[in-house]
Amino acid sequence: MSVSNAMAAPSDDAPVVEAPKKARRRRYDAKEVGLAVLFLLPSLAVFSIFFYLPFARLLSWGTYESVRGGSSYNQVGIDQYQEVLGGGEFRAGLWHSLQFVIYTVPAGLILGTLLAVAAHRRLKGIKVFQAIFSSTLASSVAVSSVIFFFLFNPAVGFFEVSWQSDPSWAMFAAALPAIWQNLGLAFVIVLAGLQAVPDEVMEAARLDGYGPLRRLTRITLPLISPVLMFLLVILVIYGFQAFAQIDIITKGGPGGATETLVFKIFKQTQDYGKGAVLSVGLFCVTLVVTFFQFAILDRRVHYGDE
Questions:
Q1: How many whole angstroms separate alpha carbon 83 and alpha carbon 274?
Q2: What is the pLDDT of residues 146-179, one digit of tens each?
Q3: Tell me: the pLDDT tens digits for 75-117?
Q4: Yes or no: domain 92-300 corresponds to CATH 3.30.565.10
Q5: Which residue stretches of 196-271 are H helix?
Q6: Whole-angstrom Cα distance, residue 136 to residue 306?
Q7: Is the pLDDT of residue 262 over 70?
Q8: Which end of the chain, N or C, is surrounded by fewer C-beta atoms within 10 Å?
Q9: Radius of gyration of the chain (CA)
Q10: Conformation bin of residue 70: beta by default, left when phi > 0, alpha when psi is -120 to 50
């Protein structure tokens, strides 16, 4: 068995199999529809209580403008949405959030994937290395942020660098603990995907003369592409929602250079209406980015039944 033989075209003598006719849409009776609705009711109730109703109230809060430091609120309609979402503060927060995503997602995804490929071996003691590579998930975001804060503290840190006070390096300093944690998350998920790849496929690639790099790019990565797409979507969402790293390491500084959208929402303690508008804007941005990820990357994903 070889990869080239598995992908060979059928001969002329092969029997022609007619494509099945398109099945007619089945009509469900009232009993089946009622049973389906009954099973969906618990999920619909949970989503309604913990997502749909709070999100509707959030949309409503966005139409109220703070007066005298939050002592009272006036309803201004959608004018506040137009003012806030079209303003410079929202664009600056969106750019800082995008910077954080650019710093954290590719580094965590690539390093975690390479570590998973390196640790996917049947060697004595490999489980120890797998546990070490996945250990970054054992600490919380706050703990890892504090660790990196003291590692790079200019006064008492091990490296004694002033990244937190340098506008050109502050975002990278805040992204380091996220990269460290993303590495462990990517390692665990990709390793699980690699363990589902059949050994026969890799053995056939070796017999065909595929080297390690060619097996990785032509065989392994295409087979685990659904896992990589899922991981990419999750890491991007995590990146847009990052807060603890910014709050602990840079406090949004210096000069607001690391104030992401989430951090700007956190600062609106006396203007709930503006904070609600920023929250809705962040939700819409995350939704659009996730949609385009699925729309673009799904064409390059290899599924086993194709």
A1: 10
A2: 999 888 887 777 787 778 788 889 999 999 999 9
A3: 888 999 999 999 999 999 999 999 999 999 999 999 999 999 9
A4: no
A5: 199-207, 212-215, 221-223, 225-240, 244-245, 261-267
A6: 36
A7: yes
A8: C
A9: 25
A10: left
Residue 27 DSSP class: P
Q: What is the pLDDT of residue 287?
A: 94
For residue 267, give the amino acid letter: K
* CA gap 182, 229 in Å, rounded: 15
**Are the C-beta atoms of 250 and 173 separated by less than 8 Å?**
yes
Res. 7 pLDDT band, cuts 50 70 90: very low
> Which of 27-31, 233-237, 269-273 has the lowest average pLDDT?
27-31
DSSP-assigned states of every residue in 254-268:
STTTT--HHHHHHH-
- What's the token pair of residue 22? 């398109």
Distance between CA atoms of 301 and 93, rounded to whole angstroms? Answer: 32
Q: If pLDDT is split at 50, 70 and 90, which confidence band does 8 have?
A: very low
Domain boundaries, the chain: 92-300
Dist. CA 222–CA 240, nearest whole Å: 27
Alpha carbon distance 97, 84 (integer Å):
17
Measured CA to CA, the distance from residue 265 to residue 271 in angstroms comes to: 10
